[in-house]
Specification:
single chain; alpha/beta; about 25% helix; binds inosinic acid
C-alpha cells in the first residue's frame, strides 16, 4: 500500500514550475509561500534508506541511542530510524534556535536536556540541518563530556560553504546552497515543518 508521502509529489517532474505548485498543495495554505522545491520527498526517502543501511552495517551487533535536536530533527529522526535494522533507543534535547530570524546568533541554550545517561553508549546525534555549525559544535562538546562509547552525527542537510567551524559529520544527506529552506521538519516562524520535501520560500513569505 502506498503512503501519503509517496502520493505527494509524483504528479509532475522535479524542477518544473508545476511541481512546486503541486507539491505545495500538500498544505494548501502554504502554497503561495513556496518558491521552489529543492529536494523532493522521494529523494529524501531514498537518501535516508541509504544512510539507514550504512548505519545498520557500521553499528552491526550493537544498539544505538539516537539523539534528536528539537524541534527540527523530529521528522528526519522518525523516518531515518525506520531504515535502521538495529535495536535503537531515542532521546531528545531542545536548544534555542533562530526564532523568527533567519541568521544564526551563535548563542546556544539548552532548553530541554536528555533523559539518558550517555556514559558507555553509542550515540548518534541526528540533525536536520548544519548551517554555521555553531549549534552542532556546542552540542558535540557538551555530549562528549558525558563519556559516550562513541559519538557521531547524521545530518540530513548541510549548507555548502557556511561552516564556521570544521565538523566531522559521519552521515550527510544533501549539500544544499546557502539559502534559507523550510519543510521536512524545518520551519520559518514555526510554520512549514510538515511539508514532506525541502523548499525555499518566496521573498513575500518573510513579510509576516
Ligand atoms: P547553525 O548553528 O547555524 O548550524 O544552525 C543550526 C540550526 O539553525 C538548525 O538546527 C535549524 O534549527 C536552524 N536553521 C539553520 N538553517 C536553517 C534553514 O535554512 N531553515 C530553517 N532552520 C534553519
Amino acid at each position: 500500500m502506498r503512503t501519503v508521502a509517496h502520493e505527494v509529489g509524483t504528479h509532475a517532474p522535479e524542477g518544473s514550475a508545476a511541481s512546486g505548485a503541486t507539491l505545495a498543495a500538500h498544505v494548501e495554505a502554504y502554497q503561495s509561500d513556496i518558491e521552489k522545491v529543492l529536494i523532493s520527498s522521494e529523494e529524501i526517502q531514498g537518501k535516508l534508506a541509504e544512510i539507514g543501511e550504512q548505519i545498520t552495517q557500521d553499528y552491526a551487533g550493537r544498539s544505538v541511542l539516537l539523539v534528536g535536536v528539537l524541534k527540527g530533527a523530529f521528522v528526519v529522526m522518525a523516518d531515518l530510524a525506520r531504515y535502521v535494522r538495529l535495536p535503537l533507543e531515542f532521546d531528545f534535547m531542545a536548544v534555542s534556535s533562530y526564532g523568527m530570524a533567519t541568521k544564526t546568533s551563535g548563542v546556544v541554550r539548552i532548553l530541554k536536556d536528555l533523559d539518558h545517561d550517555l556514559e558507555g553508549l553509542d550515540v548518534l546525534l541526528v540533525e536536520d540541518i548544519v548551517d554555521s555549525g555553531l549549534t552542532l559544535k556546542y552540542l558535540l562538546k557538551n555530549l562528549a563530556a558525558r563519556k559516550p562509547a562513541s559519538l557521531e552525527v547524521a545530518a540530513l542537510l548541510r549548507k555548502s560553504g557556511l561552516q564556521k567551524v570544521p565538523l566531522d559529520l559521519r552521515y550527510v544527506g544533501f549539500d544544499i546552497p546557502p539559502e534559507f529552506v523550510v519543510g521536512y521538519g524545518l520551519d520559518y516562524g514555526e510554520r512549514f515543518r510538515n511539508l514532506p520535501y525541502v523548499a525555499t520560500l518566496r521573498p513575500e513569505a518573510y513579510g509576516g
